[in-house]
Amino acid sequence: MPETQTTQTAQAPDPMRNFQFRLEIPGVARGHFTEVSGLGVRVHPIRYREGGIGQIVRTLPGPVDYSEVTLRYGLIRDAELWNWMQGTIQGRVERRNVSIMMLETDGTTESLRWNLFNAWPCEWQGAPLDALGRDVAVELLRLSFDQLERV
């Protein structure tokens, strides 16, 4: 009796779409975010020279540096994000835990989450205004944070 071989063709995972995301910011109920960028972390290498004849340079992990995250959002009458920035300007830094969620193709089911711990607004830019334009007015808010977690 001949041996039978079963060949399983593993299907490559479908990459997530960059337009299917949602943000959760405590105290912000109606933010209409159009873009999130700058999510990143860098561990700075510390270089040291090993003793002996070889003069080999080795590295150790050094300070961790989280990138500032940029949020772009459609300008609305609600002032929640502006008020959060104003608190920072006035010296009352209000740190919040912010979540960025990637959604499945159905647009509602969460598939991946990044949590930004102790985030606070460090920069705001108003929407460019153009009397001849027809684009949506989009503001920018940049967040600094202490720690990043991927869930």
From TrEMBL:
Record InterPro entries: CHP02241, Phage_T4_Gp19
Coiled-coil region(s): none
Record-level Gene Ontology MF annotations: structural molecule activity
Name of the protein: Phage tail protein
Organism: Paracoccus salipaludis
